[in-house]
Amino acid sequence: MQTASAPSDPLLSELRSIVGSAAVIADGDRSKYLVDARGWFSGAALAVVLPKTVEEVAAVVKLAAREGLKVIPQGGNTSMVYSSVPDDADCAIVVNLSRMNRIREIDREASVAVVDAGCVLASLHDAAAEVDRAFPLHLGSEGSAQIGGLAGANAGGTGALRYGNMRDLTLGLEVVLPNGEILSDLNGLRKDNRGYNLNHLFIGAEGTLGIITGAALKLVPQNRTNAAAFVALESPQAALELLGRVQDRFGTSVNAYELLSGNQIALCEEFTEAASPFETQPDWAVLIEISDPAPDAPLKDRLENLLGEEFEAGRLIDAVIAQNGAQSAAFWHLRHAVTEANVRAGYSTTLDASVRVSQVPEFITRCSEMMRAEFPGVHPLVVCHMGDGNVHFIALFRADEDEGADRQAVINRIQELGNGLTVEIGGSFSAEHGIGRKLTGELERLTDPARYATLKAVKMLFDPNGMMNPGVIFPEPGQA
Ligand SMILES: Cc1cc2nc3c(=O)[nH]c(=O)nc-3n(C[C@H](O)[C@H](O)[C@H](O)COP(=O)(O)OP(=O)(O)OC[C@H]3O[C@@H](n4cnc5c(N)ncnc54)[C@H](O)[C@@H]3O)c2cc1C
């Protein structure tokens, strides 16, 4: 057997014979594949391999199994939890799916799309729109994130309130198992009760059980009318109460209900080109989007009426309703500018908490108080998919106020405090980003033993030799 630390030319030659010479990158600048999206984690690999077909993926995996190589499945490499890059042990191959990017089929009548795993989300949006359908998953990384990576992470995004997360939008998968066999379930069935749902195991598995090579996905009717508003409010509690009334009035037409703290909006203005819609910065704001497939639905008027009533009743401070598509796009630009703003402002760590929607205000209050008590210099920011109870609580330390603290120790402590609080109130500390390498210790610490043992048993069943994405979800021995 080949020693993993010294890649022989024969090994690289064999990889090249499977995928072609240009699709094996063994030297040069490979940072695009080996450094995570935010530049915080980097690793090493024997080679980055870019297969183009499911057969090539299967052959690469069989070779890796034979040679005892670790395999890191990779899509757009936008993971927030360092799950798509190898560690620095230099004994892995990164299998990047970018070249496997075909839309295989779109069945308009069935509202089903069958795509390669390397298809970029924005390309699927375009392809669905061409046949007057939509794939309703939307997030800030949609220009880079791929279907395989989105399934691997079970991504949520801003439309999860109405359409669910990636699991809810997936009808079936094609997967290369760690032994190189291909499991195919791409018939696009809406009902199928043949035993356990294996697709659900691979969704959210973060590449630890196999490599997804294709997916059958649900499409929905295109929305033809939209209304968007930014609403200034006094508190998260006021936002929660307004959510109920918006849902009473608009039912399932509510696409997004995103809560932002005022200091987060101010940071976006300070560090990016995004502009606040408000003349006076409020403490809290929600971005509401309502849409409907009917071309003539009077959504804007109805939203204006509701917000007018709310204003009259003294339940909101201000509301700006988008008058056209450009204004609505500017609202979303501000919402999606948060990552860039926070990276520029200093260093931060983000909680990915999932709590019951009704507990969002309590969680935000308790978490802010807890962080301020221990870290007086912290700026608690909130970016929250409020409609589904997903709170991204961001503890930010500004670069221009840097007190020279041990950053890693601060981040660890904040994660410990915040994740502990989330679990204490019955929530999950990983709502949509996954566990990755970032939260392996927290999964072990905060999961009840029966659940943790069952998770491990599933991993052992599919991947007894631990070759798929080692160090992700479960820590490797000695992993920090
Ligand atoms: C600006 C920004 C905004 C974001 N906003 C959101 C948001 O609102 N909601 C949200 O849920 N997430 C968000 N994310 C993170 C989100 O997880 C990723 O954008 C997306 O899900 C990952 O897709 P990717 O193709 O980049 O996958 P990668 O980052 O490459 O991989 C993600 C995980 O999936 C695995 N994987 C990749 N491809 C495959 C495959 N073919 N088969 C099996 N496993 C695979 C990887 O090993 C890894 O564990 C955001 C990220 C950024 C940078």
Report on the biggest sheet: 7 strands, antiparallel
The level-1 CATH class of the largest domain: Alpha Beta
Kindly provide the radius of gyration, computed on alpha-carbon positions and rounded to a whole number of angstroms. 23 Å
* Helicity range: 25-40%
Per the principal axes of the C-alpha atoms, what is the gross shape?
A: globular
Arrangement of strands in the largest sheet: 15-12-14-13-17-18-16
The tally of structural domains comes to 4
CATH architecture of the largest domain: 2-Layer Sandwich
Query: Count of helices?
Result: 17
Strand content: 15-25%
Q: SS-based structural class?
A: alpha+beta
Which cofactors or ions or other ligands sit in this model?
A: flavin-adenine dinucleotide
Number of strands: 18
Describe this structure as you would to a colleague.
The chain is an alpha+beta fold and 480 residues long. It has 4 domains: 9-96, Uridine Diphospho-n-acetylenolpyruvylglucosamine Reductase, domain 2, CATH 3.30.43; 103-221, Uridine Diphospho-n-acetylenolpyruvylglucosamine Reductase, domain 3 (2-Layer Sandwich); 225-336, Alpha-Beta Plaits (2-Layer Sandwich), CATH 3.30.70.2190; 339-424, 2-Layer Sandwich (Alpha-Beta Plaits). 36% of the residues lie in helices and 21% in strands. It has 17 helices and 18 strands. The protein has helices spanning 9-19, 31-34, 54-67, 121-130, 147-153, 160-163, 166-169, 198-202, 236-250, 262-271, 299-312, 325-336, 338-345, 360-374, 407-424, 440-446, 449-462, and strands at 24-25, 47-49, 70-74, 92-96, 103-107, 112-116, 133-134, 170-176, 182-184, 211-218, 220-221, 225-233, 254-261, 284-292, 318-321, 346-354, 379-385, 390-398. It has a 7-stranded antiparallel β-sheet, with helices on both faces. A 5-stranded antiparallel β-sheet has the order 5-6-10-8-9. It has a 4-stranded mixed β-sheet with strand order 1-2-4-3. A hairpin with a 4-residue loop joins strand 5 and strand 6. Helix 10 crosses helix 13 (338-345) and helix 14 runs antiparallel to helix 15. The model is unreliable at 1-6 (pLDDT under 50). The site of flavin-adenine dinucleotide (FAD) has 36 residues, from strand 3, helix 5 and strand 10. Residues 37, 73-80, 83-84, 97, 117, 139-141, 144-146, 148-150, 152-153, 155-157, 206-207, 211-212, 339, 432-433, 469, 472 line the site of flavin-adenine dinucleotide (FAD).
